[in-house]
Design brief:
Number of helices: 4
Oligomer: single chain
Structural class: mainly alpha
Number of domains: 1
Strand content: under 5%
Shape: globular
């Protein structure tokens, strides 16, 4: 599955414009990164492609109807949910 660069940029911009979500975004980025991410190109803590494909399919339905990248509003909702979960005893 090829990820959409413009979709990824839109997600990054939407998160960067909300400083209150930065801490949870960084925590989630490292939680979702595969072990040893620093040893493989592109040397960034990004989730594995098969994990992202699974998450997109479970979020949006069948593979034929899913976007190539998460939608910014959905990512923001997810980060807010993570933040709220961490505020409970769900750490």
């Amino acid at each position: 599955m090829m990820r959409s660069t413009s979709g990824t940029v839109a997600v990054v911009v939407s998160v960067l414009s909300r400083p209150s979500l930065w801490p949870v975004a960084v925590r989630q980025m490292f939680r979702l990164a595969p072990n040893g991410w620093w040893r493989r190109w592109p040397f960034l803590p990004v989730p594995a492609g098969d994990y992202m494909q699974f998450r997109l399919e479970t979020q949006y339905g069948s593979p034929s109807g899913q976007p190539e990248a998460p939608r910014p509003d959905d990512v923001l909702d997810y980060l807010r949910w993570c933040r709220d979960w961490e505020r409970t005893d769900g750490k």
